[in-house]
Structure formats: structure tokens, C-alpha cells
Design a protein that fits this description.
Oligomer: single chain
CATH class: Alpha Beta
Radius of gyration: 17 Å
Number of helices: 6
Distance between the termini: 31 Å
Largest sheet: 6 strands, mixed
CATH architecture: 3-Layer(aba) Sandwich
Shape: globular
Length: 223
């Protein structure tokens, strides 16, 4: 099992990005390709690309990236999944999370699974990352708990990026209760959400992981 993914250290020696990516490449062959995805004649599904990524202050894992062609259509396709409660899609993504975590970390007994906080852009009765985290927790046999308060309501005076930095931990979340936290998000473009959330979990062993990551981003923008 790897050391602390927040600082990504192993037995006190910091692992390089290359070393971590090598470990990821070593386990890819042990993870079966899922066949849950529906036919994709327009190549809209994000491409499987397990990787370690660097934000300004943290590193995190991702399972897929946007295709070079049809990039905008692929992003729109994933965004459409935030509007319809498609449990086949949710459970398929959760299996990818669970397979990666089991192969990469071997033993996560005693860990807690949580998700990035819900925003205000999509008005429905569910939150995609929450459903993914709950399904991943069931597959791993772990407890799910909502750790973060949802984003405060946006105003015209508060930009989206500023709003994301205003999230906070819920009361009663103690590192003494859990060996660590698996933090799940469905998609990352600017890295602001994952970086802000991990930054609030400094007392915890954290495994931050997103399903699809915008690996072409340079700096911060709208997520």
C-alpha cells in the first residue's frame, strides 16, 4: 500500500510523479475492462487513462481523460449525466473507482468514503458525485459519510471559483474514528474543488480520486 497520497510519501521518502505513475501502470493489467458502457459511435466516452495529477498544493488520482477529438461533445455528454439519475452509469463508474482503489492500495479497511460537495449549477434531487461515492463504498464494504458542507448559494458578487473555496467540513469529523478518507469526485477541470477539499483534510490520510480529469488545463478557470 502506498503512503500518504496527500503528500504521496512512502516510508518517509517522497515518491516522484514518475514513480507513482509507474505503480499505476503496473496495476492496470490487473484491472478488468468494464463492459458496462453503452455503444459509443460518436466516441463521447472519456478515455481510460489512469494517472496521478498535480494541483497547486496536492496530487490526486484520475481514471479517465477527455478525448482529443469530440472533446466538447464528450464534456457535454458527461454533464448530461448530472441531469438524469442513471444508476447503471453510476454503478459502472463506482466499479472503476473500487477496482482501482483495491488494486492500488490493497487494504482500505477502516477507511471512510466521501465525495466533493454539491454545487448549485444543476437543479435536481440528486448529486452525481454523492451517488458514485455511495456506490463505491458499498462495493468496497466501507462506510459512506458526507464530510463536506455543500457550497453556499452563489450570488452575483461571488464568482464560481471563489464559491468553491468557501466549502467547509461538517462538525464531528474526527481522524481518530477512521484510518483515512477516500475522496471521490466525478470530474475535475480546474482542480479547485479537489485541492480545496484535500486542504481541509490535513489531519487525515487521504486518497483523492476523480473519474475524469481535464489534463489540458493550465491554471484556474471555471469548473
Amino acid at each position: 500500500m502506498l503512503g500518504h497520497p496527500l503528500i504521496l510519501k512512502n516510508t518517509g521518502v517522497e515518491l516522484s510523479m514518475g514513480s507513482l505513475q509507474h505503480e499505476i501502470n503496473e496495476i492496470i493489467g490487473d484491472i478488468d475492462d468494464n463492459i458496462w458502457t453503452e455503444p459509443d459511435p460518436l466516441s463521447l466516452w472519456p478515455i481510460k487513462h489512469m494517472a496521478v495529477n498535480k494541483a497547486h498544493t496536492i496530487r490526486f488520482f484520475s481514471l479517465r481523460r477527455w478525448p482529443t477529438e469530440n472533446r466538447k461533445d464528450s464534456i457535454a455528454f458527461v454533464l448530461s449525466k448530472k441531469k438524469v439519475k442513471d444508476m447503471k452509469f453510476v454503478n459502472g463508474v463506482a466499479k472503476e473507482f473500487a477496482d482501482f482503489i483495491s488494486a492500488m492500495f490493497r487494504n482500505v479497511d477502516g477507511f471512510l468514503v466521501t465525495n466533493a460537495p454539491a454545487g448549485n449549477s444543476v437543479k435536481n434531487d440528486f448529486h452525481l458525485a454523492t451517488l458514485m461515492a455511495q456506490s463505491t463504498a458499498r462495493l468496497l464494504g466501507l462506510k459512506y459519510l458526507k464530510v463536506f458542507r455543500d457550497y453556499p448559494k452563489k450570488t452575483k458578487q461571488v464568482r464560481n471559483t471563489e464559491n468553491k473555496k468557501n466549502t467547509s467540513l461538517k462538525d464531528g469529523i474526527s481522524p481518530e474514528k477512521y484510518k483515512g478518507i477516500i475522496l471521490i469526485d466525478d470530474a475535475s477541470t480546474t482542480r479547485i474543488t479537489i485541492e480545496t477539499c484535500v486542504g481541509l483534510l490535513t489531519d487525515f490520510f487521504v486518497i483523492p480520486i476523480v473519474w475524469v480529469h481535464n489534463d489540458k488545463v493550465r491554471g484556474y478557470g471555471a469548473e
